[in-house]
Amino acid sequence: MANVVCDYRFLLLLAALVFIYIQMRLFGMQSEYADRLAAAVESESHCTSQMRLLIDQISMQQGRIVVLEEESKRRELECGQLKALVEELERKGLQRLTDKVQVPVAAVVIMACNRADYLERTIKSVLKYQSSVASKYPLFVSQDGSNPDVKSKALSYDQLTYMQHLDYKPVQTERPGELIAYYKIASHYKWALDELFFKHKFNRVIILEDDMEIAPDFFDYFEATAALLEKDKSIMAVSSWNDNGQKQFVHDPYALYRSDFFPGLGWMLARSTWDELSPKWPKAYWDDWLRLKENRKGRQFIRPEICRTYNFGEHGSSLGQFFKQYLEPIKMNDVQIDWKSMDLSYLMEDKFTKHFADTVKKAKPIQGTDVVLKAYNIDGDVRIEYKDQFEFERIARQFGIFEEWKDGVPRAAYKGIVVFRYQTSRRVFLIGPDSLKQLGIEDA
């Protein structure tokens, strides 16, 4: 009996120990879970706090976005209003220039880039003769790029309208070693002429460059020839320039010619011709492009014997090419011609060939190796035939005129004939192998 009681006590003691152990483990686990729960609650509180912070930030950003959108709309509205204001001011400015009984003869645009001193000299020369005929010839300066001196100089004149061509796209030349400048010039010309013809609706535009002076009868000359440009669609443009206009090769300020070679350097173009040229305008070398037969399509250019412009630009994109030999000695007309009283109908296509042929036919033929001496010693006009480009260049070199050809046409030539004075009033006709036949002259 005593043994049983001892065993029972032992079991109770063991059970008590087990219970105490279990209670201690339970207490420890409860403490651990309490700690984890507290950590989880704290973490949840932190997450909630962070979420609220993010929500606040998103709300702030959304508020800013709304503000920015409203600001953007406001700025767009302001820009639209400013654009409309500029267009209205521009329209009023043009209206002020053109609000006369007659439609302007032509807009005059000076093409500029980065030569402020040259531009000033050109503007002063133009205004000297344009001021009295401003309603007939609204004046523009078109700047390519953002040279501040050029822009400031142009804007300092109230008598003209300033235009600016900005094109920041990188230029890709078609061939290695080409000057990027020629690509920029072509792009600028297209933009400026599109603006004047298509936006401002001018019927004709006279194009000058920022290194030119003009003659006293410059505007009267273009007014007289504008009628020819409209009536005779075989005339592609009218130029104020003669490539062989050096002092020793000119004499008669009244003499005008047709030419198959585009002279440029102060020229007038009609809108109908620009409608055709604009869509296919070249990326570079626009002046040579105009001289191609495929673009001329049999049309010709009117040019004077004595230039109505003078090019003083020794420094420019062409790097002074030909300046000393051909440009510096150019004679610019200094005589005021009454072009309104002149009958220029002889320049119409149906009359000029006969008119020119009669003049050539009267010239005395000379040949041989000493043609320069013979020409000098003969009173009256002379004609010298050449059989190919090589021979033409040899003869031209002896006289000192331009030797250059473009697309089979010598500079200043009409049906292969180049005419110039030689130190007196005598004319020298350099005549191509088929020229007499084209003029209908039978005798060779």
From TrEMBL:
Keywords: Glycosyltransferase, Golgi apparatus, Manganese, Membrane, Metal-binding, Signal-anchor, Transferase, Transmembrane, Transmembrane helix. The cofactor is mostly bound to the substrate. It is an enzyme of class 2 (transferase). Its EC number is 2.4.1.101. GO terms for cellular component: Golgi apparatus; Golgi membrane. Pathway: Protein modification; protein glycosylation. Belongs to the glycosyltransferase 13 family. This is Alpha-1,3-mannosyl-glycoprotein 2-beta-N-acetylglucosaminyltransferase. The lineage of its organism: Eukaryota, Viridiplantae, Streptophyta, Embryophyta, Tracheophyta. The gene is LOC109006658.
